[in-house]
Amino acid sequence: MKLKLFFLFSVFLLAPCLHAQNLNSVVARDDNDIVTFRDSVSGKETMPAALKTNIAGLISRVCKELSDDCDISSLYFQTFKINPGDGNVLYVTELNESLSGFQLYLCMYDAKKNNYSDFFQIDGTFMYNNEQGFESWNGRLIDKPYITFTDLDGDGRNEILFQRRAHNGTWNAVETIALKTDNDGNLKKYFSFYSKELKETGTETMEIRKIKSVNNNKVTLGVTERDMTFHIDNDAPDEIITIDK
Question: In 3D, which of 93, 117, 123, 118 has the Cα closest to residue 105?
Answer without folding.
Answer: 93
